[in-house]
């Protein structure tokens, strides 16, 4: 919800990050898009893995050239740390799943690879620059194409979740929704809300936490709740099948190129759970409201009990009112709606 002082806070941060001068209001600031390094690839249902056309802020003709329809819903996918310098395979899988669920939507892949392929501390710092670029795109869409931000959904994975958060802080008006897919933990666990994803960044912020094992600020995924709804599948620490032993088996079977699965398996599970929610509409996962992680571990939060008539009352949906939601697949197997 927007508080009475939200506008002042956002304006101050814009000036601190160089988007305006202290003496100027946002409307008086010159519209200069020349410094934008991030690229915005408009994908198509026919070739979801291909970068065929780029939306360029300041050049309205690129919207029509790329088939961007201002009347339709828009979903922007923001990748995370990319030390290899290219997109992970989940990107096109997610894009394809989004088109399956929303065939008429504009799907944009936000490409900040040049800033995301450095050592982790540098890439983490670059989330601010990439977020500024995304905010400029959004403000341009709203001003130039009269795009309705109530139709805009940002999807950010790992560092990309914080890129989305920074962008949400800097837009002239709130975007409708930001989904954080296991937002990165190191450098962000104790960061100021203006530096990371937070509930103030969109009208609705939902977050999946899948790799929170370890000490705070050292776990791969952020541990603290950072949205209106925070979901911790299987407790959020580890995910089924993501053991060191399984990673070794993959390396032995498919080669050394799979060594990254030691780190990425549980982290990337957030993406695949989201994809599952898009394509398996008839078999949705279940979520249970829970006041704390300790209460969850003690089994106090599940609406289904062994040897009782299975009836789960709380689905993972936008009406979940608790600050921390925990989803457990073992409980889901015991229950049916």
TrEMBL record:
Gene name as annotated: LPL
Predominant subcellular localization, coarse grouping: secreted
GO cellular component, one term: extracellular space
InterPro entries tied to this protein: AB_hydrolase_fold, Lipase, Lipase_N, Lipo_Lipase, TAG_lipase
Intracellular or extracellular location(s): Secreted
Highest taxon of the lineage: Eukaryota
The keyword Metal-binding is annotated on this UniProt entry: yes
Protein name per its UniProtKB record: Lipoprotein lipase
GO MF term set: apolipoprotein binding; lipoprotein lipase activity; metal ion binding
Family as reported in the entry's similarity comment: Belongs to the AB hydrolase superfamily. Lipase family.
Alphabetical keyword list: Lipid metabolism, Metal-binding, Secreted
All copies of domain Lipase, residue ranges: 29-311
UniProt-listed CDD domains: Pancreat_lipase_like
GO annotation terms (biological process): lipid catabolic process; very-low-density lipoprotein particle remodeling
């Amino acid at each position: 919800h927007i508080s009475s002082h939200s506008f002042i806070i956002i304006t101050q941060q814009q000036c601190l990050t160089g988007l305006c001068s202290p003496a100027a209001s946002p409307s008086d600031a010159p519209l200069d898009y020349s410094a934008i390094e991030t690229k915005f690839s408009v994908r198509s249902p026919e070739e979801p893995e291909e970068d065929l056309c780029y939306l360029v802020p300041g050049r309205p003709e690129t919207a029509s050239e790329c088939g961007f329809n201002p009347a339709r819903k828009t979903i922007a996918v923001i990748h995370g740390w990319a030390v290899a310098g290219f997109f992970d395979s989940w990107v096109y899988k997610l894009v394809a799943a989004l088109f399956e669920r929303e065939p008429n939507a504009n799907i944009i892949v936000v490409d900040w690879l040049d800033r995301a392929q450095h050592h982790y501390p540098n890439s983490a710092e670059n989330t601010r620059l990439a977020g500024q670029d995304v905010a400029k795109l959004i403000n341009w869409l709203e001003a130039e194409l009269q795009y309705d931000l109530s139709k805009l959904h940002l999807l950010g994975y790992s560092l990309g979740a914080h890129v989305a958060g920074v962008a949400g802080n800097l837009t002239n008006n709130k975007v409708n929704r930001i989904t954080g897919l296991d937002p990165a933990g190191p450098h962000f666990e104790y960061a100021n809300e203006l530096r990371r994803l937070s509930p103030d960044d969109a009208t609705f912020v939902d977050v999946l936490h899948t790799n929170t094992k370890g000490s705070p600020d050292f776990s791969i995924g952020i541990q603290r709740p950072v949205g209106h709804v925070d979901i911790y599948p299987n407790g959020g620490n580890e995910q089924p099948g993501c053991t060191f032993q399984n990673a070794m088996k993959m390396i032995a079977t498919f080669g050394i190129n799979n060594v990254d699965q030691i780190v990425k398996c549980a982290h990337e599970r957030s993406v695949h759970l989201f994809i599952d929610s898009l394509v398996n509409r008839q078999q949705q996962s279940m979520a249970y409201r829970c006041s704390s992680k300790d209460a969850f571990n003690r089994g106090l939060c599940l609406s289904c009990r062994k040897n009782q008539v299975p009836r789960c009352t709380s689905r993972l949906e936008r009406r979940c009112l608790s600050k921390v939601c925990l989803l457990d697949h073992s409980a889901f197997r015991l229950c049916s709606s």
